[in-house]
Amino acid sequence: MVAGLPKKYPAKKGALGSTYFLPGTLLLILKRGEKEMNKIMIVDDSQFTRFILRNIFLENGLDVVAEATDGYEAIDLYQKFQPDLVTMDLTMPGIDGLSTLRAIRTLDPEARIIMVTAIGYEKAIKQAFVLGALDFIVKPLQKERIISSVYKHLKSSDPLSNYVPKKINLG
Description:
Layout: E1 19-22, E2 25-31, E3 39-43, H1 47-59, E4 63-68, H2 71-81, E5 85-88, H3 97-107, E6 113-117, H4 122-130, E7 135-138, H5 143-153, E8 163-169
Parallel strand pairs: 3-4, 3-5, 5-6, 6-7
Antiparallel strand pairs: 1-2, 2-8
């Protein structure tokens, strides 16, 4: 592993290969296309917060491809990994979350970024939305709130959307 680069965490097995028996049929869940999982990047200077978010995402079939501890690292890793969605803290060393949001959206106007922060004052929330944030989640972290927002803002809102059922008639 190269110093400074995030670990690639193993993907959890989802519904791929699951078998369901229905009267007179066999229903298999098969992978659709090449893309198995949605790629997530976590940007937060708190190791504990990154740990919690990573576990929430992995438990829900999302692939954490990068983690950044500050805005500069986030910009570099965004360009390298091109994640489908980014969660970003507001207050970080170096450049703050709003400046990082602006920089990433300048590089990629289609970037999907959700602010996840302990600071929920009205001015920051409004500015985040003006800069292109899709959502603003105030800590403490609530698993259901985070997953709901993430799936809402990904290209596909269904956690099993990368899988397609195939019906096989047995009779």
